[in-house]
Structure formats: C-alpha cells, structure tokens
Design brief:
The chain folds into 2 domains: about 5-135, Glutaredoxin (3-Layer(aba) Sandwich), CATH 3.40.30; about 145-200, no CATH class. Helices cover about 35% and strands about 10% of the residues. It contains 8 helices and 6 strands; from the N terminus they run βααβββαββααααα.
C-alpha cells in the first residue's frame, strides 16, 4: 500500500457533483501530474460533506484545510501554493455566513463542530464506492458481531435498545418492526429493503 504525504478529498455528493466536482477532481489529477506529485498526493472522491450550498468542497489532509466553492480554474493555485509550497489559499477558505470570518480547518467550522455523527461518521472521509476504505475505518464490525456472536433475538433486542428509527416520515422503531417480522407465522421470512441512495446534506 502506497503512503502519501497529503490527501485531497473532493466531495462527490449530488450537490457538489452538480456544481462541477468531477471536473475539479480531473483538474487535480492533471495538475498533480504536471508537478510530478501524483505519487505524493492522493485524490479521493468522497460522499456528501453535508454543506451542499458551499460546494464543490475540497478538504486537504493532513491539515484538514477546508476549501469551498472550488472550480477547476482554482485547482492549479491549490496545487502550486498549498500542495507544492505549503501555503494555504486564503481566498478559497470557507467563510462563516454569520461572522463573515474565514475558517481554515474542517473541525473549526461550527456546522461540523456541533455535530456528533454516528451513522454518517464516514461521510466526507472515504470513497463510498470503495469497500476497503469503509473496512479500514472499522466498517462492518457490528455486522460481524451479529453474524458470529449473537442470536437473532439478541440482535432484535439490541436494535430496540438502540432507539434506531426509520428515516421516513413515520420514524417507526426498527427493533419493533424486526420483532413483528420475527414473530409472524411461517418458516420463510422476507425483508424488503428500500436501499435508496440519499445525501445527508
């Protein structure tokens, strides 16, 4: 596995994609090739960051520098100044709407700082199309436990304790729904899952 000195995370959620993030990603790849940095800087298309109105969003790690409303024309400046010379491009930093202050780091943005993400904790950090990235962040640990250490009744009880609810209009408790299914007559049970793609932002 290759080691990179920097990661450039580019939001590819619906809002950012419609704002041009695929072109921003291609521009990064091209500019990094021009500077011979493609083996030092990894460019990653991520899921939604949740701030669609400020997209396309680009976050540069290890610093966590948050750039907003990035266009393909801005990319050469980010590569030259930030990734090549180590200087932040101030004009592209996120501007807090209330205070009008520029905010440099992802975690300093009030929108993110006041959140405690659980289900969506990986959004904006990994490529949602790459299962290895999810597994590297301990993805599927709960599923593994359910399949190897728990009985079906224990899984349902855990779901009830969690308070997890459907994200539809009714917000029906998931554990209760599962207990109804488990208690229904018949040897074969079917679960129909509406696995709708959705963005958190």
């Amino acid at each position: 596995m290759a080691l990179y000195r920097a990661h450039v995370l580019i939001c590819h959620g619906t809002g950012c994609a419609s704002g041009g993030s695929p072109k921003v990603l291609e521009a990064f790849k091209e500019e990094l090739r021009k500077k011979n940095l493609e083996k030092e800087v990894l460019v990653i298309a991520t899921g939604c960051h949740g701030m669609c109105e400020f997209g396309p969003i680009v976050v540069v790690y290890p610093e966590g520098t948050f750039y907003s409303r990035v266009n393909p024309e801005d990319v050469s400046e980010i590569v030259e100044e930030h990734l090549y010379k180590g200087r932040i491009v101030n004009r592209l930093l996120y501007k807090e709407p209330i205070s009008a202050e520029k905010v440099c780091h992802y975690k300093e943005i009030p929108f993110y700082g006041k959140q405690h993400r659980v289900v969506l904790s990986n959004c904006g950090y990994i490529n949602p199309d790459n299962i290895d990235e999810y597994i590297s962040r301990d993805g599927y640990q709960a599923l593994g436990k359910c399949l190897t250490e728990m009985s079906p009744a224990q899984v349902i009880d855990e779901m009830k304790k969690s308070g997890l609810r459907g994200r539809g209009g009714g917000g029906f408790p998931t554990g209760l729904k599962w207990s109804f299914c488990a208690a229904s007559p018949g040897d074969k049970k079917y679960v129909i899952c509406n696995a709708d793609e959705g963005d958190p932002g």
